[in-house]
Amino acid sequence: MSLTGSFIDHTLLKPDATIKQLDQLCNEAVEHKFATVCIQPCHVKYVVDKYPIRVCTVIGFPLGATTTQTKLFECQQALNDGAQEIDMVINIGKIKDGNFEYVQNEIEQLAKLVHSSGENKILKVIIETCLLNETEKQKLCQIVGDAGADFIKTSTGFSTGGATMDDIKLLRQYSPKNVQVKASGGIRDGAFAREIIQAGATRLGTSSGVALMKDMPATSNY
């Protein structure tokens, strides 16, 4: 598989991010042909109006503990502003309570909203792997697939850990073939990026996209 910028969601989610930093992110994304820029919802319209790039934003971020109706409202606003990819955070407490039905229903509603808003709209589901046990991760692979989401994603990057090789292998093994895997959190060097791509990740969420491209030339094959 040839590596291109299409693997990378070039990410800026820091709470103190400035417009100057956002402009730099977007210019880098255009230059390196990254899959998306992944930004906070408040910046979506600004970027959509100014840059010829695909825009991803986050919903229920970073804790996932807002109500389903709040997530739906937030998602609809982002779609109205022009977002093309949505990364939602599940309600992790509901998983710990064993209330898998709640989580599946929430994902289903978000997936329906995203997919009905136009062609090529994508929903990614952040499950925060560092807070889950193996059984919960395996169950969520099934839930994300059954609920109609497009990706299962490891991490917000704001919790106790990020993407690991073991988690990428697990998510790829237990997810349906039509569900892709996004690795996020702590991806800062080319060697690790190569390993997780080989393990099955098809998208990398990282703020180190430019450094990774320098470390992983597009002519490399994995």
UniProtKB/TrEMBL annotation:
Keywords: Cytoplasm, Lyase, Schiff base. GO terms for biological process: carbohydrate catabolic process; deoxyribonucleotide catabolic process; deoxyribose phosphate catabolic process. Transmembrane segments: none annotated. One of its GO terms (molecular function) is deoxyribose-phosphate aldolase activity. The active site is at 153 (schiff-base intermediate with acetaldehyde), 182 (proton donor/acceptor). It catalyses: 2-deoxy-D-ribose 5-phosphate = D-glyceraldehyde 3-phosphate + acetaldehyde. One of its GO terms (cellular component) is cytoplasm. SUPFAM superfamilies: Aldolase. It is an enzyme of class 4 (lyase). Its EC number is 4.1.2.4. It comes from the Eukaryota. It holds the Pfam family DeoC. Belongs to the DeoC/FbaB aldolase family. DeoC type 1 subfamily. This is deoxyribose-phosphate aldolase. The lineage of its organism: Eukaryota, Metazoa, Spiralia, Gnathifera, Rotifera.
